[in-house]
């Protein structure tokens, strides 16, 4: 291998460790911010559980039992040390291990997020590719205009309209996504339909437009023009040359959308009464259940950091120059 080739390859070989180290530092910073935010909130778990009229000695005893009277830095170190081992303590509200409380809801959010992702990614990529290859034509204007209209409608408005039409009006789907005891969303797939459509409608617009813009630019590149002049079939040009280059600008936004979907979509879960992780966060915040709030926030940050790390590592692989053998 020549020295010039070595200089080109070496930065790529260090991409994983460098980006992974950066992701871990981000998670550490997020853990500090999460702990500081819960500390800065008014009141604490003791007063929330006993009520504002509780005797001062009872509140003090509960604070001592929960360890709330210890200095904040010591409590952070103790919490973070256990969190990296997967131990987030016990819920103040129920006394159950936080991991069990989260597991009950995270599975529901994961199913909802995966279902929405399975619809979002093919739609955004497929429609973006189709519109980008027809940039400036009637089909492109129709798709881009529809995407712009979807982006202008708030998520709760979209969900409310879907509920009014398909649940209250036509009666085709349940208005709320409540699950019975011992049931999961896959036992009642109909409860996923309206939340999934709501989430996809919100995330589709930006992703579709980014894919469309990237494809339109890639379709005008010299490499694509050369492939067409050499008689390469148009379908192969689109899939082999245009799509990978066009996806590069859209991958970070797709990653953020997937992280949002998998991490629990607050508006959709609240609107449809879906028992997911975002709804758990709302309930825990209202109850001042600090261990659950901290764990859910850190879990959401971990999902977002992992998705962005994947995007950072995937973008260079989509670059034709980076993928070309050396």
Automatic annotation (TrEMBL):
Pfam families given in the database record: BPD_transp_1, BPD_transp_1_N
Protein name per the record: ABC transmembrane type-1 domain-containing protein
PROSITE patterns: ABC_TM1 (PS50928)
Source organism phylogeny: Bacteria, Bacillati, Actinomycetota, Actinomycetes, Kitasatosporales
Alphabetized UniProt keyword annotations: Cell membrane, Membrane, Transmembrane, Transmembrane helix, Transport
Places the protein is found: Cell membrane
Topology in the lipid bilayer: Multi-pass membrane protein
Family, per entry: Belongs to the binding-protein-dependent transport system permease family.
Classification via PANTHER family: DIPEPTIDE TRANSPORT SYSTEM PERMEASE PROTEIN DPPB-RELATED (PTHR43163), PEPTIDE ABC TRANSPORTER PERMEASE PROTEIN (PTHR43163:SF3)
Organism domain of life: Bacteria
Gene3D superfamilies, A to Z: MetI-like
Chain ranges passing through the membrane: 110-133, 145-172, 192-211, 258-282, 294-318
One GO BP annotation of this record: transmembrane transport
